Amino acid sequence: MENAHRTLLLTSAANAGVLVEYGTRRLLLDGIRSQPFAPFLPTPPQILAEMLHGPEPSRWRNIDYLFFTHLHPDHFQAQPVEDYLRFNRVQRVFAPQWPLKPFPGLHLCAPEDGAYVDFALAPDLSLRIIGTAHMGEAYAGMRNNALLLTAGGRKILFAGDGDAVPAWYQAAGRVDALFVNPLFLNKRAMAELLEAHAPQTVFVYHLTERSQERESLFYWRVAERAAGRLSPQEVRFFPAGTSIAL
Question: What pTM did the predictor assign?
């Protein structure tokens, strides 16, 4: 039971980037980008600089596991990822495709919709990669890997940009937290997904900077209206700079 009480800390690296810290283990999802992809933010410049050239004890250096849901430029950008692997010690990389030179710890997997692949990272830390198609007809050909992270008995499901098709996520079972983007939160299937997975909290990530710019306003308004409809389900926003402990 000791591991069940170990702190699980999650920090936003802007957009869909999330740093997960559990004991001495660290995992970074979709968190290495140097250029904006309007209206979405890149990794904050000060964090990116620390990732590449900061002191060795930095929480952003030598991250054990890198995870990429898919390769759209608001989730993956080749040059900064290549730079990160050059300047840091990384144990494993998980991605559905890989456009860079081979990496010894690379795990390429792109399961079919609803299928999954399991990886044990430590006795009390594991990943389940669940295959989905990207949300939206224009992107349906893009594979998206959802991630179920189990750490000390706590289960967190990150949907990435997968579509909200309940059958695809059955392999996740009940979870403690669910991370979704604003458009996913707004889907009619959310009620069915909440019943199936019973998360204590739904976190809305992949958020833009809150501004008066039209596209940014759109994402925030969609998320806020959808969150209001889901009450009393706890919905929390997870924009850039947010940290939460589970």
Answer: 0.95
Contact (Cβ atoms closer than 8 angstroms) between residue 129 and residue 93 = no
Between CA 226 and CA 35 the distance in angstroms is 29
SS3 content of the chain, % helix, strand, coil (to 5): 25, 30, 45
Tokens of 114: 């609803």
d(CA 95, CA 110): 8
Name 141's Cβ contacts closer than 8 Å, sequence gap at least 6.
133, 134
pLDDT tens profile 139-151: 988 999 999 999 9
Q: Which of 170, 157, 161 is nearest to 136 (CA)?
A: 161
> How crowded is residue 21: how many other Cβ atoms within 10 Å of its Cβ?
19
Strand pairing of 177-180 and 201-204?
parallel
What are the pLDDT digits (tens) for 40-91? 999 999 999 999 999 999 999 999 999 999 999 999 999 999 999 999 999 9
DSSP 162: B
| Alpha carbon separation from 33 to 1, 17, 42, 84, 212 (Å, rounded) | 37, 9, 5, 10, 24
